[in-house]
Design a protein that fits this description.
The complex is a heterodimer of chains A (339) and B (332). Chain A has helices at residues 3-6, 8-29, 37-44, 51-86, 98-113, 122-147, 155-178, 182-192, 201-220, 222-228, 232-237, 242-264, 270-281, 286-310, 318-336, and strands at 148-149, 152-153. Chain A is an all-alpha fold. The mean pLDDT of chain A is 79. The chains are: A mainly alpha (339), B mainly alpha (332).
Chain lengths: 339, 332
């Protein structure tokens, strides 16, 4: 059953990369300032660069595209891990409140340690993901604590508690952000809704280490994720330290999510959809699911950002576009699922 | 025992309501003393500043919060009774979001008067109710409490995302967000007057239905064996919920969690008979929202804290407790 699907992996990977390149091209050339293909290539390769084009591409569009790619990749992989570990196709870092927890952690950091909300100082940009990580961990811990009953993790309750925790953390973020300056508050609101409007190269540098460090760990543990799809007893019978492995994987995915949230705000439903797309395309082995899920996430965020940027006369937060695309799919998954 | 609790609720709640109104008028950003309040009641003059504050701002706010709490509490009680679902409530089932979405669309494309907006708000809440329950029929096991709640939440998020997207697209975000963010501080007496007949109609329908809801809460089969037209009762219940939620969204935007939590507390107090639960939920909801509103003025004095934050912080622990306690019981 899996045999024919295995061979599709290279083809899927190639198609994904090509599609992403196509969307990158469209994103680079389109916007409130249109450019021709020749201009773009000339600017990118530094052949007779026009200062206007250089500014548009290197200061605005390129960082934004790179950030969209990084966030999409991080969320896609984190989503695949969370779904694998909880053995639940409906899990998503956004729905589960991990993103909201990370957001609250970051707002707390901004509130207590910084006078201005979004500065481009290196220090603040780099420490932010760390606080997000603590917040995300707190959220993940609380959710697990409350949905654990009689030694088992009830999946439905897991989601609902996640929604509640998410609402709670959002309330905390909202309360704290209201106590900030009005100017900062405005920026914080945009950021909480999920927007990569203010992408700069510093943000990229801040999020890159997390992705570079955590992704290989997750990729190396793909076999573990496959094992988790079995019953707990069987996994233990194979001599796996179940809880420890689970913990490591969850910590990694929370780290990825926090890094993404710290620059992109709360973008939900990407982590939900990407793994499902991956599972439709390649086999159920996580060796293939993880990279494809990352690619799918990249494509989704990039497209959502393109839509958010170009469709409306004013910018729509990416998170909202992602939700509008993602929710019908979520309902579809619910409808297909077993009772 | 039950009867005594019910009596107690009836005896205490007017006193609590009056107290709530009084505190709500007395305390706030501007200092207003007892004498000022008395002055405003006995000889009101539009030129006096404190009289003006009391009549145009504080009083509508107190009465409005009581009315909204009452409407949300009662509609939560009806929804929980009819669906036999301990998580049902206007905000979780996406009803308020549907209402907000329709108001947004109406505001952008055609409606100008408050009446039209209010009617759109009713239609929106009705549409959302129908959509969520219709989908629950399609989704396998969709009527299980937790599943239904997830479905409702997701549909609600979808509605609110679409509403935000449309609002931003047409550059109306500011005036639209005015409609669907909870805003007890900008209560308009004329809107309350406009919504009052609808709200009263919804409440009367709810009270009229309460006996049937009790029977329905025993289970659909039992109810139809007892000779009840369950479809009719459900239909009227939906309309009543749509009227009440729509009216409350029109007055003050969507306020979460009240419709969920209040009926549970009331059920704990007065038992399982919806003839008591529905009116008592209304009373309790009013009292709760009134005091939450007062609290929102004190948390960060003299600035106001959004009522959503106050309610979330009070109610979310309770919600988690509910899910934790009941989540595994009925095979959900």
């Amino acid at each position: 059953m899996f045999k024919p699907k295995l061979n599709r992996f290279p083809a899927v990977l190639l198609t994904g990369v090509l599609l992403i390149l196509a969307v990158i091209y469209i994103s680079l050339t389109n916007g409130s300032f249109d450019m021709t293909l020749g201009d773009t290539i000339n600017t990118l390769l530094r052949i007779h660069p026009d200062p206007d084009n250089t500014t548009v591409i290197f200061e605005y569009r390129l960082p934004r595209i790179v950030i969209a790619l990084l966030i999409g990749f991080g969320l896609g992989i984190a989503g695949a891990v969370v779904q694998g570990v909880t053995r639940n196709g409906l899990a998503d870092p956004g729905i589960l409140g991990i993103s909201a927890g990370a957001g609250a952690g970051i707002v707390i950091f901004i509130f207590f340690f910084q006078t201005s909300v979004i500065t481009d100082e290196w220090y603040s940009v780099f420490v932010r993901p760390l606080f997000g990580w603590f917040g995300g961990l707190a959220a993940a811990g609380l959710i697990t604590l409350f949905s654990w009953k009689r030694g088992m993790l009830d999946i439905q309750r897991f989601i609902l508690i996640g929604v509640a925790i998410s609402a709670g953390f959002s309330a905390i973020s909202m309360y704290l952000s209201l106590k900030m300056d009005p100017d900062d508050f405005q920026k914080a609101t945009i950021w909480v809704h999920g927007s990569i409007y203010h992408a700069t190269w510093v943000y990229i540098a801040a999020v890159l280490p997390w992705l570079v460090c955590l992704t290989p760990v997750i990729l190396l543990k793909h076999g573990m994720l496959d094992l988790f799809q079995l019953e707990d007893i069987s996994v233990k019978g194979l001599g796996v330290e179940l809880n420890r492995q689970r913990l490591v994987l969850l910590l990694c995915s929370v780290g990825l999510v926090s890094a993404c949230v710290s620059i992109g705000g709360n973008i939900t439903f990407i982590g939900l959809i990407a793994p499902h797309v991956a599972k439709q395309l390649v086999s159920v082995q996580h060796r293939y699911i993880l990279p494809v899920s990352g690619l799918a996430g990249m494509l989704l965020v990039l497209t959502a950002d393109l839509v958010a940027r170009t469709v409306a006369p004013t910018e729509i937060p990416v998170g909202i576009v992602a939700a509008v695309i993602g929710i019908p799919y979520f309902v579809y998954l619910l409808m297909r699922g077993k009772s | 025992m039950l009867r005594k609790n019910w009596l107690m609720a009836v005896l205490y709640s007017p006193a609590l309501l009056l107290l709530g109104v009084f505190i709500s008028i007395r305390y706030g950003a501007a200092e207003i003393s007892f004498q000022d309040v008395w002055h405003a009641i006995v000889h009101y003059s539009p030129d006096n500043l404190s009289d003006n504050i009391i009549v145009t701002s504080r009083l509508p706010r107190a009465l409005g919060s009581i009315l909204i709490g009452c409407l949300l509490g009662a509609s939560g009680a009806i929804m929980q009774g009819v669906t036999r679902n301990y998580l049902a409530s206007p905000s979780i089932m996406g009803v308020s979001d549907g209402s907000a979405l329709f108001v947004t669309i109406a505001m952008i494309f055609f409606a100008r008067s408050s009446v039209e907006l209010m009617i759109c708000s009713f239609i929106g809440s009705l549409a959302a109710t129908c959509l969520v329950f219709g989908m629950a029929k399609w989704v396998p096991g969709g009527m299980q409490p937790v599943r239904l709640a997830i479905l409702g939440l997701v549909v609600g998020t979808f509605f609110s995302s679409v509403a935000t997207g449309i609002a931003i697209y047409f550059k109306m975000a500011q005036s639209v967000s005015f409609w669907y963010n909870a805003r007890l501080d900008q209560m308009d007496l004329s809107v309350i007057k406009l919504a009052l007949p609808w709200a009263a109609l919804g409440l009367l329908m709810a009270l009229f239905l309460s006996k049937s809801v009790t029977i329905l809460s025993l289970g659909e089969e039992t109810a139809s064996n007892l000779g009840m037209k369950t479809g009719l009762v459900k239909g009227i219940a939906m309309i009543s919920v749509a009227l009440m939620t729509g009216a409350s969204v029109a007055i003050a935007g969507s306020i979460a969690f009240i419709g969920l939590i209040i009926p549970h507390i009331v059920r704990y107090l007065v038992g399982t008979d919806y003839r008591w639960i529905i009116p008592c939920s209304g009373l309790m909801g009013g009292i709760f929202l009134c005091f939450a509103d007062i609290a929102s003025r004190f948390v960060n004095h003299p600035y106001e804290t959004p009522i959503t934050v106050v309610i979330s912080l009070i109610c979310i622990p309770f919600f988690i407790y509910l899910v934790y306690k009941k989540g595994g019981k009925h095979g959900v």
